[in-house]
Design the sequence.
RNA sequence: GCCCCGGUAGCUCAGUUGGAUAGAGCAGCUGCCUUCUAAGCAGCGGGUCGGGGGUUCGAUUCCUCCCCGGGGCGCCA
């Protein structure tokens, strides 16, 4: 179980620092305050918090850590009334027990702050950009894109919660070869539909080593060798056929194939994003950067700094000057830029537009290019260290114990749309954000389709939230009012499981800020599961502790707990972009 | 060959700047219960944290060398 601090920890931390300072001064050491850890104890026998300060400074003071721990305790004793007991343990830990009443105050805080509980202002409204998905409109969004959508959107939500001014941005390369191949693919299918071209054989498509046929049965094969094979290409061709008949055969208006494909596929992508609950603030693209001269400008400036040179008719970026393993081509001998140059210009524009830092979210397949973009952009004046990368590994899909292979260019991928139809957006988002980005993610379709709330973690969390409303409905039937911040008296919450829940609730703000600062949204999913894992059994085991009972004061306290759990679960689900239902 | 990311329970994975006896879910096993909405609740078993070496009071965590899996090493994006 992951553990985080809370308001009580911060207070204790201050007191430990005072005690540590006193111990240092007593030993004639006026040096710097060392880094030490004060953590929620992992085991109940170790109290509420454990501190390693004595061990950290043992060498510096040349004293046994347990002795130092005793000195710390002597200084701590009269400092903090909430401390109930202090103990030296193990190699020199100081374990701290707080009175149960210390945990009661958190509920009032949660209820007062409501949707703001967990938020902070540490971002100081600084403008930050999160760029993600950025898939070229060559086909529907697939599993990997889906993970990136959820990662990027959840990170954006986290950054917003800790006070950054977040812009979600989608950038795509519509100027390059990929889009030409897309247009050519559509045209080929169009000609095939008219009987003017032959589709390549199945074996030619699937086997990269087989010879590519020039013609079949007297008809030319025009489909590109690296063309897009999905069925949507044929749909696009059929649409053009319906609209224009054979009027596009002569080649005079070939750009219509590419333009139509880009427009229609992008429409589909935006619909999918909408279904995912992901809304971009800005869409930007490569051709705009060409049209307003930003790409030429970037190249000219790199040239001024002697960071480019000519070789073999191409223009190269001197990446080796920045300790990178090789130089890279910016402009091909054909005169066309590679994707790298627009990317560099684009990153420079991000900062010119006023962002103080940017987060790029990318799949493992083009991790390699990132250092080049970063170094070049920094050379062009972007602030060092403010271009950040969140890299994520691939997604596999497991169904019935078998992994379904994902192949990009062939039509054997699973789309986000298909998965959304099967499991719904809430489950999809929960599963996609469950793992650290750097870990491969195995999407367990059987578990995702499981509707039993106990088994499916997404439903387990949602049901925990719905239960808080169920209890409120029941209370209202019985004429019992929910407490508010003024009428709440939490002092009767004394059961160990109640204190556990209060502790978990108090950890929420630190968990949020950590997840935001480290760009690790998976902590949200774990936290949600853990809080629900405390709450569901508590509610279920009503034989030991009814929430709605005869004792009005106790009922008031427990209903306060209901509210606290509801608010924190709702806030967690909101950060995850998942609905918090009142009934299920 | 080189670079990046992983390797933790049968499976999928957490483990916060190095901390005490390494955790969760699912699967398995055993009891109990019949609910403030749904078969639940409690407990049990299960590990050389890929392997060797190093750093230190202490290493799953840091360094190094191997092994395995994935990705990348284009004038493709």
Sequence:
């Amino acid at each position: 179980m992951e553990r985080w601090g809370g308001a009580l920890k911060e207070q204790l931390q201050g007191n430990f620092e005072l005690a540590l300072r006193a111990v240092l001064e007593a030993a004639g050491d006026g040096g710097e305050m060392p880094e030490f850890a004060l953590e929620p104890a992992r085991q109940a026998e170790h109290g509420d918090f454990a501190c390693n300060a004595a061990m950290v400074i043992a060498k510096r003071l040349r004293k046994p850590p347990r002795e130092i721990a005793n000195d710390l305790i002597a200084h701590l004793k009269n400092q903090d009334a909430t401390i109930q007991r202090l103990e030296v343990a193990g190699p020199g830990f100081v374990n701290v027990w707080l009175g149960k009443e210390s945990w009661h105050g958190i509920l009032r805080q949660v209820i007062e702050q409501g949707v703001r509980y967990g938020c902070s202002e540490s971002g100081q409204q600084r403008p930050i950009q999160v760029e993600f998905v950025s898939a070229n409109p060559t086909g529907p969004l697939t599993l990997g894109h889906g993970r990136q959508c959820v990662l990027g959107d959840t990170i954006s939500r986290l950054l917003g919660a800790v006070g950054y001014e977040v812009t979600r941005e989608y950038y795509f390369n519509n100027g390059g070869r990929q889009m030409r191949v897309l247009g050519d693919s559509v045209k080929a299918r169009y000609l095939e539909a008219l009987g003017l071209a032959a589709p390549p054989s199945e074996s030619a498509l699937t086997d990269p080593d087989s010879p590519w046929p020039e013609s079949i049965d007297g008809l030319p094969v025009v489909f590109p060798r690296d063309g897009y094979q999905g069925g949507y290409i044929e749909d696009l061709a059929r649409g053009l056929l319906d609209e224009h008949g054979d009027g596009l055969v002569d080649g005079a208006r070939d750009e219509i194939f590419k333009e139509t494909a880009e427009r229609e596929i992008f429409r589909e992508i935006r619909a999918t994003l909408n279904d995912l609950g992901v809304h971009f603030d800005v869409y930007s693209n490569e051709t705009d950067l060409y049209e307003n001269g930003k790409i030429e400008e970037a190249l000219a400036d790199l040239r001024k700094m002697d960071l480019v040179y000519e070789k073999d008719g191409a223009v190269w970026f001197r990446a080796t000057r920045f300790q990178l393993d090789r130089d890279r081509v910016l402009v091909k001998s054909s005169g066309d830029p590679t994707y790298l140059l627009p990317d560099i210009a684009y990153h420079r524009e991000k900062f010119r537009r006023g962002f103080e830092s940017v987060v790029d979210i990318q799949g493992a397949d083009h991790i390699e290019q990132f250092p080049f973009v970063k170094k070049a952009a920094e050379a062009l004046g972007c602030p060092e260290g403010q271009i950040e990368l969140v890299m994520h590994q691939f997604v596999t899909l497991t169904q019935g114990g078998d992994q379904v292979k994902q192949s990009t260019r062939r039509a054997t991928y699973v789309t986000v749309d298909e998965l959304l139809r099967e499991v719904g957006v809430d489950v999809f988002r929960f599963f996609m954000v469950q793992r650290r980005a750097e870990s491969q993610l195995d999407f367990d379709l059987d578990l995702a389709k499981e509707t039993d709330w106990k088994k499916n973690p997404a439903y387990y969390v949602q049901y925990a939230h719905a239960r808080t409303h169920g209890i409120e409905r029941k209370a209202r039937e019985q004429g019992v009012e929910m407490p508010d911040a003024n009428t709440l008296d939490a002092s009767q919450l004394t059961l160990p499981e109640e204190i556990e829940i209060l502790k978990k609730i108090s950890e929420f703000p630190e968990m949020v800020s950590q997840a935001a600062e480290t760009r690790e949204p998976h902590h949200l999913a774990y936290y949600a599961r853990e809080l629900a894992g405390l709450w569901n059994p508590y509610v279920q085991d009503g034989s030991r502790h009814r929430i709605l009972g005869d004792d009005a004061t106790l009922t008031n306290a427990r209903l306060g707990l209901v509210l606290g759990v509801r608010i924190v679960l709702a806030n967690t689900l909101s950060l995850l972009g998942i609905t918090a239902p009142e009934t299920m």
In short: The two ends of chain A are 27 Å apart (CA to CA). Chain A has a mean pLDDT of 90. The first helix of chain A runs from residue 7 to 26.
